[in-house]
Amino acid sequence: MELLARYLHLIGAITWLGGMTFMLLALRPVATAQLPPPARLPLLAGVLARFLPIAWISVALLAASGAYMLGAAGMKNAPVGWHMMMGIGILMFAILGHLHFGPARRLQQAVAQANWPQASGQMAKIHPLVVINFALGWLAIAAMLFLR
Fold this sequence. Notes:
The chain has 148 residues and is mainly alpha-helical. Helices cover 90% and strands 0% of the residues. The protein has one domain (2-146): Four Helix Bundle (Hemerythrin (Met), subunit A), CATH 1.20.120. The model has no long low-confidence stretch (mean pLDDT 97).
C-alpha cells in the first residue's frame, strides 16, 4: 500500500507541476507574443478551465496519499521535510482555491462577454499566483529531498 501511495503522490505532483510548467514556460509566452487579446484570452481561459479540474484531482491525490504516508509513518517519526512539504502543500491548496474561485471565474465571465480589458486584468492576477504555486511546488520537493 505504501508503494501505491508514493506512486499516486508522484502522479499528483508531476501532473500539477507539469501543467504549471507548460502554461508558464511554453503556452503563455508564445500566446502573448503571437496572438492579439481577442484570440489569446479565450485560448488561455479555455486551457485554464480545462486544467483546473486536473489540478484539483492532483490536489486530491496529493492530500490522500500524503495523509496515508504521514499516518503510516507517524507524525513524530516523519522527517522534517515531510512536515514542510505538508505546510507548503496547504498553502498551495489555498492559493489554488483563491485562483479558481476568484480571478479564474472572473476571467471566464470577461471572456464570455468579450471584455478584453477585464480579461487581461484577470490574467494579470492569475499569472503571479501560478508563479508562486510553481515556486512553492519545487520548494516542497526540495524540502522533502534535502530535509530528511
